[in-house]
Specification:
This protein is mainly β and 66 residues long. The protein is 6% helix and 39% strand. It is built from one helix and three strands.
Amino acid sequence: SEEPIFSPELDWERCDTQSGEWANRGLTPLVIFIEGWKKTDEDTFLVWYQGCDSTMGLAELRVYFS
C-alpha cells in the first residue's frame, strides 16, 4: 500500500511535544506497532497495538482490497 493502513493519531499514541498530558511520556514517540490481530469478518480485524512503546490499545480495522 502507498498509504499506511494504521498510524498514530491520538495523543497517547503520538507522545510528541503537541500531545498535551502525553507529551514526552512515551519511550518512542510517533509510532505504533500492531502486536496481534483477529479476523472478525471478511474485511474486518481486531488489532491489539502499542503506542509510543508505552501503552496498549485495541482497534477495529477495516481493509478494502482492490
